[in-house]
Amino acid sequence: MVGGTGGRQAPASRAWTRREVLGAVVAAGSLAALGRPAELLAAGEQDLRVGLVVPGGAASEAMERGATLGAEEAARTAGLLGRTFELVAVRAADREGVEDAVRRLVAERGVYAIIGGADEGSFAALSDAAERDGVLFLNAGCADPVARDEHCRRHTLHIAASTAMYVDAVAQWLAGEAGLRRWCFVSPDTPSGNAVYRRARRALEAQGGEAVGRIEVGAGTDDFGSLLRDIERKGADLAFVDLAGEERRRFLEHYSAAAPGFEVTGPAGVPGEPGDGASRPRVGTWPTLWHHTLSRYGATQLNERFRTRFGLPMDALGWAGWFAVKVAWEAVNRASTTSGSELVRFLESERAAFDGHKGRPLSFRPWDHQLRQPVYLVKPAAGPGGGEWEVVAELPRAVRGQEATSQELLDRLGDGEAESRCRLAPLS
Amino acid sequence: MKGSRNWRLWIGVALAGALQLPAGARAQDAPLAYVSNERSGTITIINTATDEVVGTIEVGPGPRGIQVSPDGKRVYVALSDLARNVETDADAIAEIDVASGKITRRLPAGTDPEQFAVSPDGLKLFASNEDAGTASIIALDTEQVIATLTVGIEPEGVAISPDGRWVYVTAETSNTVSVIDTHNNRVAASFLVDVRPRAATFSPDGKRAYVTSEISGTVSVVDTETHQVIETIVLGDGEAKPVGVVVSPDGKRVYVANGHANSVSVIDADTNRVIATIPVGRRPWGLAITPDGKKLYTANGVSNDVSVIDTATNEVIATVKVEGEGPWGIAIADPSSGG
């Protein structure tokens, strides 16, 4: 259990076990409050609840830490405005459990938004359940392109960046700026692996680069030495490695030991962060939503609040969990409703812009519900031992001489409306 | 305490009065503009009659918010270091005697003071403590913190109504304004504004307040009787990054520093419409206007200069290079105002 304080068991035919209900954060309104949004919300909507549904494990805990901080901050603000705000965190691992959790959170706890998506399975189940129950679902973890295309849902919005955003970021920086334009792709022959390969190749070619080969890696591959030599033989100056878990860890260990003459990157995830399994070697350049060394635009303060609360640096999943709660809280304030469909309409509108301590207004693309946001690239810090990671770039970069609004600039990452495969059904 | 030895050295230098004023500069009657330079730990003094730098004061690390006492005799500047959430020797509000140009005392102000306001009677000072999420009320006679109030998350801007009754404290993360009732030193109300509110100011008649929101690119107009937002003004198609805000002495114009947009917006206070956008130096943050309302000064944090705007023509008529780095705040002291 990571969560906050004040958790209450859900009254139900089968009560949630203590292990299932991870915790809740509550604040009681205590101060006089004035202001338009508070008055427009119905009396019963002064007590606001959002749910966090996670399968368990390191990624879930990372997301929950962020969501807990977000909920504690929202609860404090709610107290200033004479309201309460509560996060109810529930553990559910399989589809049936997720669907049951969402149903009960909505019916029994009055939850108006669900946060989750720590893995592809729970993302898919949450997306379906949220659509069924007409409740807002904020995906804070899943980037998988296939899962997202299959669950392009009106009530699902993505805080987590898409794979397309990550590959655009690394292509714009490593091919466009650093001049590494001969890429060899290393990925599994799976629907997701193939989708990432196609999208990354397109991003590379948009920067004038060339794919010099693709090596398909299946589960259980162990001859990474030969694989590295194969990449060198192809004349690659960069390996784009779309592997996960044990395969990625072993690839990076071999890469670190062999120190070949090409760089390495991939679609997402800083090695060693929650959600990356056991991948620890500090090599390569990786895209991430957040880093604990960011300092501008109030990032120092946010990182400090997180570290003070948990004694840990804020990672990408922590940021996404924190920001998802912030969006859920602010959306209700500004849309003056807890209706799922009305919140979706608000979040699709031009009025919905949020501050994620990234220096730009963050908003959702109406065509695929993806949050527009900068992506950071990190690599091992220079110096003895190459111990820590450091941020080396923020993407997209403004192009000198090209005027662009923040929205236009951020739309340089990820799929535009024409290329997106997401076709959202109309709201009922 | 992190870095406290270095801060003590700074303080020693500052208290010794490391002021570099050319002979005769202080004797002039023209209002003086005081510019806090965050990165160089200095204050630049500009003569508003000639728009020339007439002095530099070393004050110590991180000078940001800067205000003038109602009688015009003292300038206060918020100082803070990089030790977050910890009150160190460097966290203070320094008081500068305008006549001598020397720091006369350092007031406690909680952790990481950034912006503050001085009450019209000159007896109290209200400061935001960004990391602690509080506002401190300091009695200027006893130098004691007489109240510490919980406000929104990441409090930033502080403004006090002309009659001294209400203090508005903005909070960047919670998008709130907390209203402090100075009769009982309590938070009387809180209300929401647009995203990432930075600064606030009151109109001279006290009936309106203006709150800038950096991420939304807007200014919220507040009815100070009800403490409610009555209108939201969009600046530069939402692409402005408004921070500092001042109202002209006659109350007819509101000036907003647009930060990353490198401009100042001019708002007609009767219609709440933007009537001009003036390009200035890079990253204007703080603003100050002369007592006669004829000149507006912007502290430009990246270009290390101050733009001087003729408010009759809305044009930049001078650019003054500061002898320091990171101009942040600016305040104008009129030696003739309090005599």
Number of alpha- plus pi-helical segments of chain B? 1
Residue fraction in strands of chain A = 15-25%
- Give the N-to-C terminal Cα separation of chain A: 38 Å
Secondary-structure element pattern of chain B, one letter each:
HEEEEEEEEEEEEEEEEEEEEEEEEEEEE
Tell me the radius of gyration of chain A: 21 Å
> In which order are the strands of the major sheet of chain B placed?
3-2-1-28
Number of helices of chain A: 13
What is the arithmetic mean of pLDDT of chain A?
Answer: 87
Strand order of the largest sheet of chain A: 1-3-2-4-5-6
Strand-and-helix sequence of chain A, N→C? EHEHEHEHEHEHEHEHEHEEHHHEEEEH
The percent of residues in helical segments of chain A reads 25-40%
Largest interface: A-B, 28 and 34 residues
The shape of chain A is globular
Largest sheet of chain B: 4 strands, antiparallel
Q: Quick one: overall form of chain B?
A: globular
Percent helix of chain B, as a range, is under 10%
Give the biggest beta sheet of chain A: 6 strands, mixed
**How much strand content do the residues of chain B show?**
over 45%
Point out poorly predicted stretches of chain A: 1-13, 26-39
What structural category arises from helix and sheet content of chain A? alpha/beta
Radius of gyration of chain B: 18 Å
